[in-house]
Amino acid sequence: MFRKKEFRLVVAGGGTGGHLFPGIAIAKAFCKKQPETQVLFIGTERPFEKRCVTKEGFHHAVAGASGIKGLGFRKKLAAAGRLPLAIASCMIKLIRFRADAVVGVGGFSSGPVILAAWLLRRPVVLHEQNSVPGIANRLSARFAGKIFLTFPGSVAWFPEEKCTLSGNPVREEILGIEPRETDLGSPTLLVVGGSQGAVALNRAVTEALPQLKELGFYIIHQCGEADVERVRACYAEADVDGEILPFIDNMSGAYARADLVLCRSGATTLAELTAMGKGAVLVPFPHATDNHQEINARYLEENGAAEILLESNLSGESLAHLLESLLNNPEALSTMGNNAKRLGHPDASTLVADGILKLTQKTT
Question: I need a labelling partner for 80 at 20 to 30 A (CA). Which of 44, 53, 200, 364 fits?
Answer without folding.
Answer: 53
